[in-house]
Structure prediction request, 109 residues.
Amino acid sequence: MTGPMRAWTGAVDTATLDGATVITYAAVPQRHVITGVAWSYDAAPAGGHLTITDGGVTIFQVAITAGGPGFFMFPYPKMGTANSAMVITLADPGGQIVGCLNVLNHWVE
Prediction:
């Protein structure tokens, strides 16, 4: 991490049935930085996965195969590129399953 932490915000999004859960940080002149994400599916998903993209390039992806909560804390924060959007997506779980996604810490620098 470069320099002191700036003022931060988190974000939360809950999917409706048959939809992905998405948090988007729009492109700004600085870099987006996140230190963790938490998610949950209320049952085992058919094709669950969590993806983080920076300017459309995947910088983190993991399959999620069970229901319930989970989280990742990044000891080295995920840093985007200046002038690029950062998008965090919890895949559509399929069926009547609902997902919830939280960004635990976000700032720009």
